Amino acid sequence: MRKCTVLLVSAILLAGSMVAAQAGHQVSGSTLRKLHGVYTAYWKGKKAKVQIFRNGTLRAQYTNKVDVGRWKVKGDVLCVSFRVWTHGKPKCGTVQREGNWLVGLHNSKGVPRLKLRK
What we know:
Order of helices and strands: HEHEEEEEEEEE
Number of strands: 10
Strand order of the largest sheet: 1-8-9-10-2-3-4-5-6-7
Largest sheet: 10 strands, antiparallel
Structural class: alpha+beta
Low-confidence stretches: 1-22
Distance between the termini: 53 Å
CATH class: Mainly Beta
Radius of gyration: 17 Å
Number of helices: 2
Helix content: 10-25%
């Protein structure tokens, strides 16, 4: 019985470390505050070019449509709102670096809403 418990605990710890490794490294608030410029972005699977302005505004272009919004950083949490994509409501969450991508603002099922890179 003790062997089974040790194996089970080891498997749980291993699985947890694999998930943490896949999640990437969390991006700090000070790094997030430096975001500006044009990024390739995916918002809930929709590909767009997003321009991030230092004054806290956003402009996204996808297909022939344009959406505008706002962004801010609270602590290590990024909040974005778009007129269309989020119906003007802010969506907030941590952001992780995964290779060249910044990924975050996960939904309640743990799926990232936002993925972007310069």
